[in-house]
Every structure is written in C-alpha cells, then in structure tokens.
Amino acid sequence: MILISHRGNINGPKEKTENDPKQIDLCIDSKFSVEIDLRIKNKKLYLGHDEAQYEIDENWLLDRNKMLWVHCKEKEAFEYALKMRKLNCFWHDTDDYTMTTWGYVWAYPGKECCGSLCVGVMPESHWSKEEFTRMPFIGICSDFVQDIQDHINTK
Q: Cα dist. 33→1, 41, 108, 145 in Å?
C-alpha cells in the first residue's frame, strides 16, 4: 500500500509545517509519498494550501517527482504541471473522484474505493483503521501515515 503524507503531516495535522519543503523532505526521507498543494503567483511556484507560502522552483519538483502527489490549487498551477509532463498531478474541488495524470483515482474523503488504482483520502475521519486498511485502496493519504504504517506492520 502507498502511504501518502497529507501536506507533510506524519503524526497528525500541524498547520505550521504543512507544505513546508523541509517537512516534505523529512517525509520523503522516511519513505512516505507526499501530497502537496501547488500554486502560482507572479509567475513563481509556491507550496501552500490556502495561499502561496513557500517558494520553490521547477527543479525542486522534478528532483522529488516520484514521491509527490501534486494537488494543483488553481487553473494556472494545473496548466503548468500538465506542461511539465513528469508530475503526478490533479485538480479538483469537491468531486467524488478525480484522476491523476499517472492514472490513479483520487477519492474525496469518505468515498469508497473505486477501482484498483484508487487512493483513499483522510479515511480516518470516516472509518476505523481496521475498516479502511481492509478496503482495496492502492494508497491512503492521511495526516497520520506513521500510525497507519505501524498498524499495517503489526498485522
């Protein structure tokens, strides 16, 4: 199962470090994939959920592309990421399911698995660990990936 840190969170939400490139690298060093929020402001790339917070460059994205799930937060960021052709990116709002550029299905929180390449997002807010780790998700995106990994490893 692919474990995806939600915005760099490992052991619960920590708003101060969400989308911080240093925190993203810590997750990657811990072998977790990471969902990041990409924005463009004044023709520069930024990470940040509600606003452009951390400036990054294209090389930063490319150096980590195999471990990133790039949630484009606006049309300009999505167009940019699509042109790069090397990023696993997606753009959605409240859709039940959306497809990433690498063919994965990103399920809105609380939605059940939809196909063999479906990623469950924040399942801990809707099901118990026992329930969602039995579901046929190929991956789980969560603020609690360390706890989920520990749970899976003890089975």
A: 11, 25, 18, 10
pLDDT digit string, tens, across residues 57-88: 999 999 999 999 999 999 999 999 999 999 99
Q: How far is CA 85 from the centre of its chain?
A: 18
**What's the longest Cα–Cα distance across the chain?**
49
What total number of domains does the chain contain? Answer: 1
Name 83's Cβ contacts closer than 8 Å, sequence gap at least 6. Answer: none
Tens of pLDDT, residue by residue over 113-130, are 999 999 999 999 999 989
**Can you tell me the distance from the alpha carbon of 27 to that of 71, in angstroms, rounded to the nearest whole number?**
17
